[in-house]
Amino acid sequence: MSPTVKRQLWAILGLAVAVLALMAFLQSDYFELVLTQVLLWAMMSVAWNILCGYSGYFSFGHAAFWGLGAYTVALGLIHLDLSPWLTIPASAVVGGLAGALIGFPTFRLRGHYFALAMLAYPLASLYVFQWLGYQEIPLPMKREAPILYMQFADQRAYVALALGLLVITLLISLSVENSRFGMSLFAIKQNEPAAEAAGIDTWRWKMLALMLSGALAAMAGGLYAVVLLVVTPEAVFGMLVSAQALILALFGGVGSLWGPVIGATVLVPLAEGLNAKLGDVLPGIQGVVYGIAIIAIILLAPEGVYWRIRDRLAGLLPELAPMPTPGATIPAVPRAAPSPTAGKDLLVLRNVGISFGGLRALDGVDLSVPEGGLYGIIGPNGAGKTTLFNVINGFLSPERGNITFVNESLVGLRPNQVCRKGIGRTFQVVRAFTRMTVLENVTVGAFVGAADAAAARHMAATALDRVGLGARANALAGGLTNRELRLMELARALAPQPRLVLLDETLAGLGHDDLDGILGAIRQVRAEGVTVLIIEHTMQAMVQLVDHFDVLDHGRLIASGTPETVVRNSEVIEAYLGKKWAEQVAVAVK
Amino acid sequence: MPFSLVDFLQALTAGILVGSTYALMCIGLGIIFGAMRVINFAQGDFLMLGMYAAFYLATAGGLSAFLGPSGGPIVAAFLAGPIVFALGWMIHRFIVSRVTGAGAAQTEGAGAYGQILTTLGISLILQNGGLIVFGSAPTGIRTPLSRSSWEIGDILLNQGRSVSFLVAVGLAVAVYLFLGHTRQGKALRAAADNSQAALYMGIDVDKAHRVAWSLGVGITAVAGGLVAGSQSFQPYTGFDFVIVMYAGVVLGGLGSILGAFWGGLVIGIVQQMSTLILPYQLQNTAIFVVFLLIIFLRPQGMFGRLSERT
To answer: I need a labelling partner for B259 at 20 to 30 A (CA). Which of A163, A446, B135, B240 fits?
Structure first.
């Protein structure tokens, strides 16, 4: 168990002790009720955070789960005489199923549209429950067996129950955060295509997150019904419920374990207190407080209280470990003898074509990359280079032609499946997970080939050593130089030990000195037996690096061969410099 | 068939009449989304403010007394527009502009959601502030038009809704002409198309956004004023229309003003026609189903571009 996790466990224990102490100290039913609400809303918000904070898919509709939980408990008690001891766990099942049903269509959407579509579910439920005639249903009192039906005279029993559920939720959230599950969600949040290309089955993790989040939110709603003893559609499916879940998390700090708890601790008593004092005169004061809180937090501290404090503290503390620049640690590997014909064909493209509207982005591309080769594809901007990679790794499906890898077809596979076959890739635009360390960044990529988290960490560390970034393993990715970022992305692609890596403009925008470091790392990778296919639009660096060139222009391969022959090809010069230059060069050569 | 042809035509006519005011609301929302790419959660609450503005103008403002109970509310609905326009201008100036437009940095944590959350905050304040100021009792604008009808064959045309229809369509045409043929309208569309490029071409994008925002909430407020003549409302009413507006705008195609008009109209028709086979309370659930169907059948219309640049 890592020290961070241990610290968090102590913190959760501390929270439990603090709440119990407070409970012993409070002598009024009213304050105990407020405390119960703080705990339940904290739980709701932590549940919301598991989906939305970790994966970045914001939901404006978590009231759907809360409401379903509340109605499961209320209707179970009224119609089936079921005790909340049974129906609160049952509501977790209901919430989880609802999550699956909702996620199935809604995860077709991203960003704003996902958030917006989520809004529709609680509102539709609200109308349906009104129509079903459940306008206002009070929970019947069970005087004959109150404890069996979770009806306590002493409010403190509810505090303890809510605390128990919150602690369970926090523990679940903590274990999500520190597992492959959480890592995958973080990766999705940062860059979903990159996560998918790193072998993460994004669809599966998103669905699991929504189901888990829905199950926990429904349990919170279920206990809420027991505590308040009356359920109305507006109170459990209303916009304020969904809004409150996200406002609390946002206020405290989205994506952190404690953010939602901080938010609930500050805002719930504030809104409740104002409502109790001024509710008669100013009936909407609670909503106004939340509205002002949300605007204030967005304008003043958009990252939330938790992150603000953490970043402040991090600024005060000295750097954790000295970070030597590893420039010299990359061994200069001598250029391997170019013998591509010796290897068997690893990746083969036959007559691959794809169009966007009228534009033929790829047109009849034939390409074979032998095992152990270091192949380069060059071409001017817009030649179709990145499209070619997207077709190989599954972001795009080719309209024509065939792609095989070790004699297996790749056509129709999703990127995470292509990655599992042993093809890693980097991206033109490096997206680091800035709040994670270098090692964690690479671990995300390593999960594909690893049995468990420890193995993934080990593979990640190995990959970092391979590219010469081992000394920076514990640095935050946000503070890396461009060269280090490129190396980190290379390590991420290498971590699951692929047979082939696709490097997308890894050399772009690097200065001369940085370039040498990266070239060294790429040669090193190849020397270890990994096949490399790299695209670039600058020819100079590539000539030193690769043993075979393919030149792409307007979606067609116009030349192919060793660097020496390709740079003399007049068609290539024309594609790069225009017709006039090609003619002049031709004259000069003669 | 569980309903007669007359029922069908009656529902269709009602749908077109109601849909025209929805279309106007959708145009308001569509202008804001089109120009700013901001999803405005508070749009329904600006609609609600339009209702109350029209209500107070008609009653306390004396428009009904001065212009008669039929004409007064219509003029009041029109005047609700500039009032809400001015309020929208202030809200954009002091709040919204700080999270949108050229100067807004994308912050982590809230991320791209900063804007949407800000409008959610505005929505909560308007809704609950409305509760404090206006009270929770439902109210409505009394007009004899809403209780009388014209008869065309067997079909009844509610006079209030028919007049609203004419006003809504007229205003929609005016907005369309404004956007297409005036300098300010063109600036708005340029800012919508590519705010960076518009900025370099000397268009004050921030101002264009402010105009779009204010115009958008103002137009929706007029639609609210028109609806206020035929149904009762309270401070939370706005939210009922949020789904209507978003379904309409998404149906029509995000960012297209003409699309927003037709989308709103179709949503009105769907809502009224659903009463033929569904209970009255589930009208809005029918809209929700349409909304989901759009997501299912035309997701590319919602995603914008299918493939992201990697």
So the answer is: B240
Q: Does A395 touch chain B (CB under 8 A)?
A: yes
Which residues neighbour B294 within 8 Å (Cβ) at sequence distance 6 or greater? B247, B250, B251, B301, B302
CB contacts of B124 in chain A (<8 Å) are: 240, 243, 287-288, 290-291, 294
pLDDT in tens, B126-179: 988 888 888 888 888 877 777 777 777 777 777 778 888 888 889 899 988 888
pLDDT digits (tens, 9 = 90+) for B227-264: 888 888 888 888 888 888 888 887 777 667 888 888 89
Predicted confidence (pLDDT) at residue A318 exceeds the cutoff of 70: no
DSSP state letter for A153:
S
Residues whose CB falls within 8 Å of the CB of residue A539, separated by 6 or more in sequence, listed in order: A378, A567, A576
Give the number of other CB atoms < 10 A from CB of residue A135: 12
Domain coordinates of chain A in residue numbers?
A: 10-316, 345-589
| Closest C-alpha to B219, from B190, B271, B183, B257 | B257
Q: What is the mean pLDDT of residues A485-501?
A: 87
Q: How many CB atoms lie within 10 A of CB A487?
A: 27
For B131, the closest chain A residue by CA position comes to: A284
DSSP states of A570-582: HHHHHHHH-HHHH
> Which residue of chain B has the CA closest to A428?
B310
Confidence (pLDDT) at A315? 66
Element (H, E) at B140: none
- CA-to-CA separations, A228 to A137, A474, A513, in angstroms, rounded: 11, 48, 67
Across the interface, of A193, A246, A283, the residue whose CB is closest to B136 is: A283
What pTM, to 2 d.p., does this model score? 0.81
Mean pLDDT of A131-145: 85
Burial A101-110 (b: 16+ CB within 10 A, else e): ebbeebbebe
Chain segment A86-96, per-residue pLDDT in tens: 999 999 999 99
Q: Is the distance from CB of A96 to CB of A219 less than 8 angstroms?
A: no
CB A223, CB A162: distance < 8 Å = yes
Q: Is the ipTM of this complex over 0.90?
A: no
What single letter denotes the amino acid at residue A497? Q
Residues in B 14-33 with any Cβ partner in A closer than 8 A: none
pLDDT tens digit string along A225-272?
Answer: 999 888 999 889 988 898 889 888 888 888 888 989 999 998 888 888
Number of Cβ within a 10 Å radius of residue A343:
14
Is A432 or A120 the better-scoring residue by pLDDT?
A120
A345-589: CATH architecture? 3-Layer(aba) Sandwich (3.40)
Tell me which chain A residues have a C-beta less than 8 angstroms from the C-beta of B303: 109-110, 113
d(CA B267, CA B246): 10
d(CA A354, CA A362): 5
Q: Quick check: B107 and A302 CB within 8 A?
A: yes
> Does residue B35 register a pLDDT over 70?
yes
Q: Is A107 on the interface with B (CB under 8 A)?
A: no
Tell me the per-residue pLDDT of A162-184, one tens digit each, with 9 for 90 and over: 999 999 999 999 999 888 888 88
Residues 228-267 of B with CB under 8 A from A: 235, 239, 242-243, 246
Q: Which of A253, A283, A294 sits opposite B131 (nearest CB)?
A: A283
CATH architecture of A10-316: Orthogonal Bundle (1.10)
